[in-house]
Specification:
Length: 191
Amino acid sequence: MNRRPTPKEQGTSLLEVLITMVILAFGLLGIAALQGKTQIGTIESYQRAQAVVLLEDMNARINANRATAATYVLQAPAGTDDAQPADCNALGSGAPRDVCEWSNALKGTSEVRDSAKVGAMTGARGCIDLVQAPDPSAGVCRPGIYLLSVAWQGLHQTAASALNCGKNLYGEEGNRRVISVQVTVGLPSCS
């Protein structure tokens, strides 16, 4: 025996399917947004890791040439938009060559894809500032202290860095990322 649905029961299945599709669409949009945030987080993490490697590179260079550490201090950031040559061989050795090679690494020359330099962070710049001048005077014997910083362009706004490296070079200050390390160069001649 076939029972005919009453007019109240017609279309109920259609409405349930429509509600299910709306809920599913919102869920898929949420998953897509989460995937986008995850991708941005991955890129930010990669850039920070690259910055740490470049920061440690210059730290090692200064520590290898402790007697001439003061010659590494920069008046303007190295890296993006600086005037360093692409070939550093003509600079000999020491601080000028180290800064040139660091600048090229900040520009991403370590990895090239389709003639684009992609081996570093977006808009990477490096700064070397004098925090405390060395003073070998008798009775004072104060070591030299230098602040090494690496700045780059982030992908989203965060709190602005208090460090000066790259300040006002990335549009909104919340887009600027900076990491730094202090290098203390002792004076072996002091006792």
